[in-house]
Amino acid sequence: MNATRYFFRSSVNSGVIGVLVGIMVSGAANIKDYRKGKINATDASICVGKEAIGTGVATGVSAAVAGAVGSSLLFALAVGIGVKYAWDVGVERLEDKSS
Asked: How many domains does the chain have?
C-alpha cells in the first residue's frame, strides 16, 4: 500500500492529529512566554486554541487533497503549508477588523 494513502486514509483523523500537534507546539511556546511574564494565561490559551485549529484544518485539508490526488508527501506538505498560511492571514485580518 502506498504510504501516502495509508497516512492520509482519513482527512478527519489527520485533522485531529494536526490539532494535537498544534496544541503541543503552541502550548510549549506559550508556556515559555507565560513563565517569562510575556503573556497572561488567557492570551496563552487563546493562542494555543487558534494554532491548534489552524494546524488541524491545514492537516485535514492536505490529507484530503493528497488522498484525492494520490500524490506525494511533499505535495501534501506544500498544500498544508499553503492552507496554514492562508488561515493565519485570515485570522489576522479578522482580528484587525475587530480591533
From this structure: 1
